[in-house]
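Practice problem 4.
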């Protein structure tokens, strides 16, 4: 695409000279001899860069005409880069305008090489900014489409990682297959299960949750399958199990990795046949239940160690959804923090910095607790870093994050990793020990284009 420059200068010779100079660089140059004409061009055509003089009336050297023109340009396009042509008499005004947002200033007569280099750098920065804006618009549109089409159960997120996960969760929700949700404690596995249930064919049915980690081993079967009166001490009357209660709905088995081996065989039978018996009963019962399970354990390793049945693992793991740790989706930290704080509380800048600097080994649950603590301790509506208590929290890396020397590397290491992987950001991020979003943030910080390198 050919870049278009607009030169606004009352000296026609300047416009002609710059038109020739930039034409040799493959750029298109439009010219105007005064502010009104220049603004009319901006209203009529797409322009990527403006080079403007500071004075347009004979014997005028204050630079006020240039200031007024610059402000008018900014009103039309706050992000349009503007280079100011100055004389020594209006240098002070030009410097003030640079502080106000002008891209650069240059004295006449100008240096061709410096002017071309400056223009190219500004055009590259503008293109990168426009591309980021286009990507952000596309991401926002994708989020809106997902929210319009599915019930997201009020989940709060900003990261692309969660967007991809939720899109997949909503897609598989309508399929009558078991789903295994994996991820560290406190990352939001139960919320993902709620979203799957809410968008399933049995959304109107019951949604029954069972925390397998909280059940004593000798009570697991009675909880899942029920018990007849007198089945064991303390059971005075028949009690239905969670499978019966969840009939025609969804049963969410949290911390499924804690299920004892003896109970695993019975669970497998129910998943295969839909049939089970209450404890103390020989009557076979049936239930049609959608199974969603979750675990923070490595079930594949548990299978290898003989602690989890392989056939049950594959029965549960028809679809696996991996919820990333909060440290791997830092874009979600501040939106979640603001949500937990509520509409009557705001985060001070130092609090935001502290939240983004923390590694969140306890994930979303820890973040919610920290904000709740801050709301209790804050005397006013603003939450500061001192009320978060993060300076006393562990700063050791969470177990799911493997720190590397490369992860701490700067611009040079990032550029090398991108070159090494042909510009593929996901592969470069893995090489550096970063999440993709973390790498994008560092690329933006160091001014590295997101385009493939």
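Answer key:
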């Amino acid at each position: 695409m050919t870049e278009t420059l607009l030169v606004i200068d009352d000296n026609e010779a300047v416009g002609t000279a710059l038109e020739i100079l930039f034409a040799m660089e493959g750029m298109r140059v439009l010219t105007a001899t005064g502010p009104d004409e220049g603004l009319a061009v901006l209203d009529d055509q797409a322009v990527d860069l403006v080079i403007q003089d500071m004075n347009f009336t004979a014997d005028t050297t204050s630079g006020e005409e240039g200031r007024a023109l610059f402000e008018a340009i900014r009103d039309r396009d706050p992000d349009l880069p503007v280079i100011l042509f100055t004389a020594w008499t209006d240098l002070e005004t030009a410097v003030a305008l640079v502080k106000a947002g002008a891209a650069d200033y240059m004295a006449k007569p100008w240096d061709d090489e410096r002017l071309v280099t400056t223009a190219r750098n500004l055009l590259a920065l503008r293109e990168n900014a426009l591309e980021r804006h286009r990507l952000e618009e596309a991401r926002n549109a994708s989020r809106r489409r997902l929210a319009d089409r599915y019930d997201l159960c009020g989940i709060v997120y900003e990261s692309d990682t969660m967007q991809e996960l939720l899109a997949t969760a909503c897609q598989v929700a309508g399929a009558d297959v078991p789903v295994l949700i994996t991820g560290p404690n406190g990352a939001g596995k139960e919320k993902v299960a709620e979203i799957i249930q809410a968008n399933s064919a049995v959304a109107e049915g019951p949604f029954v949750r069972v925390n397998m980690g909280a059940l004593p081993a000798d009570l697991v079967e009675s909880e899942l399958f029920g018990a007849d009166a007198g089945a064991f001490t303390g059971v005075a009357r028949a009690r239905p199990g969670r499978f019966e209660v969840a009939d025609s709905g969804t049963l969410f088995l949290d911390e499924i990795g804690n299920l004892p081996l003896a109970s695993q065989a019975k669970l497998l039978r129910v998943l295969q046949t839909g049939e089970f018996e209450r404890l103390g009963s020989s009557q076979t019962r049936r239930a049609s239940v959608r199974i969603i399970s979750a675990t923070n354990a490595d079930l594949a390793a548990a299978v290898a160690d003989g602690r989890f049945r392989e056939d049950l693992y594959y029965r549960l793991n028809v679809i696996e959804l991996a919820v990333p740790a909060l440290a791997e989706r830092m874009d979600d930290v501040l939106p979640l923090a603001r949500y937990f704080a509520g509409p009557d509380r705001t985060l001070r800048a130092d609090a935001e910095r502290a939240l983004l600097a923390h590694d969140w080994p306890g994930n979303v649950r820890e973040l919610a607790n920290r904000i709740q603590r801050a709301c209790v301790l804050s005397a006013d509506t603003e939450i500061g870093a001192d009320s978060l208590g993060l300076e006393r929290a562990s700063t050791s890396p969470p177990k799911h994050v493997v720190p590397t020397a490369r992860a701490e590397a700067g611009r040079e290491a990032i550029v090398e990793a991108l070159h090494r992987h042909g510009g593929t950001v996901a592969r470069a991020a893995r090489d550096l020990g970063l999440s993709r979003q973390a790498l994008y943030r560092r690329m933006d910080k160091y001014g590295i284009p997101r385009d493939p390198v």
